[in-house]
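My current task is to audit a protein record that another person submitted. Alongside the sequence sits a line of tokens, each denoting a local backbone shape. Where you disagree with what is written, explain briefly why. This is what I was given:
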Amino acid sequence: MPNKPKTPNRVIRVDDDLWEDYGRACDDDGVIRSDDLRAHMRRKVRAWKRKNEQRTGQESSDGA
């Protein structure tokens, strides 16, 4: 399949108004919504891992 995506699609529910406003905000910042969402997810996971490492005193691989 020539157009097979490298990552699976994920489905989320978002109100139409929020989706439209988010699209405009991303356009103003010159980013694509999916790129912005992935960046947010990476930041969230890194912060979560740091918090858990401090709590347990263990190191884990970041991967993001």
